C-alpha cells in the first residue's frame, strides 16, 4: 500500500540513508520488480508457506528493501510475482518498525472506516475504500512462530489491503467499475508509452 502524501524526496533520501547505516544487511539485498495493474499475474491466489526457512527470510529482506525504496507502507509477495502468503508492512514514520506476516488471516471485530488508498501496483491513483475498522489478525513471524494482534485505523486498512493481494484482489476492485476501467485504461496507455521509450 502507498500513502497519498509522500515524504519529500530529500527527507526520503535522508531516512533511507540512515536506515542503511543503522542496519547493515548481512547478505546482498535485491530490489524486486513490482507488477502493475492490470497485469493478470496480480490475480493469482497465493499458496500458504509450508515452512519458514532461510529462503523465506531472504525473500522478506528483499521485500522490505523493495517496499522502503518504492516507497510504500505495505507489500504482498503477489506484487513481486511470488505466489506465497507473505506480506511486509511498516506504517511507522521512521520506517523502522517492519511487521512481517506469513500465512496471515484476520477476522473482523467491529466498525467501518473509509480511507483513501493507494497501491504500488496501481501507481499514481488514490481512491476511498470502506473496510473494517477493527480486526483480529493472526500470522507467523520471521521465525515461523504464530502470533495474534488486534489492529485498527491505518494498520487495519493496510492488513486488509495486503491480504486482499494474496487472494488476487486489488483496491480498485472495491471502487466503481467506471473508475476502475478509467484507471486501467490510463495505466495500459502509460505502460505502452514506457515500453516505447525503452526501445
Ligand atoms: Zn497494494
DSSP E strands, number: 5
Q: Write down the Rg.
A: 17 Å
Structure classification: alpha+beta
Overall, the morphology is globular
Counting DSSP H or I runs of 4 or more residues, the number of helices is: 4
Q: What quaternary form is this?
A: single chain
Poorly predicted regions are 6-26
Say which molecules are bound, naming each kind only once. zinc ion
Strand order of the largest sheet: 1-2-3-4-5
Strand content: 15-25%
* Biggest sheet character: 5 strands, antiparallel
Order of helices and strands: HHEEEEEHH
Brief descriptors of the model:
199 residues, alpha+beta, binds zinc ion, five-stranded antiparallel beta sheet, single chain, globular
Structure, explained:
The protein has 199 residues and is of the alpha+beta class. The protein has four helices and five strands. It has helices spanning 9-22, 54-69, 153-166, 177-198, and strands spanning 74-76, 86-89, 99-117, 127-140, 146-152. It has a five-stranded antiparallel beta sheet with strand order 1-2-3-4-5. It is globular and about 45 Å long. The chain binds zinc ion (ZN).
Amino acid at each position: 500500500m502507498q500513502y497519498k502524501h509522500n515524504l519529500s524526496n530529500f527527507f526520503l533520501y535522508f531516512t533511507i540513508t540512515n536506515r542503511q547505516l543503522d542496519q547493515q544487511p548481512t547478505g546482498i539485498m535485491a530490489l524486486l520488480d513490482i507488477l502493475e495493474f492490470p497485469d493478470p499475474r496480480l490475480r493469482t491466489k497465493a499458496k500458504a508457506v509450508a515452512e519458514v526457512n532461510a529462503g523465506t527470510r531472504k525473500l522478506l529482506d528483499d521485500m522490505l528493501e523493495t517496499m522502503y525504496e518504492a516507497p510504500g507502507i505495505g507489500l504482498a509477495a503477489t506484487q513481486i510475482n511470488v505466489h506465497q502468503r507473505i506480506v511486509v508492512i511498516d506504517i511507522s514514520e521512521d520506517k523502522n518498525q517492519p511487521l512481517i506476516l506469513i500465512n496471515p488471516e484476520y477476522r473482523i471485530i467491529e466498525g467501518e472506516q473509509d480511507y483513501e488508498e493507494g497501491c504500488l501496483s496501481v501507481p499514481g491513483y488514490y481512491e476511498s475504500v470502506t473496510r473494517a475498522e477493527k480486526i483480529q489478525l493472526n500470522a507467523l513471524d520471521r521465525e515461523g512462530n504464530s502470533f495474534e494482534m488486534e489492529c485498527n485505523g491505518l494498520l487495519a486498512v493496510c492488513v486488509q489491503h495486503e491480504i486482499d493481494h494474496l487472494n488476487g484482489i486489488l483496491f480498485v476492485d472495491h471502487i466503481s467499475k467506471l473508475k476502475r476501467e478509467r484507471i486501467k485504461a490510463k495505466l495500459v496507455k502509460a505502460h505502452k508509452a514506457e515500453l516505447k521509450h525503452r526501445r
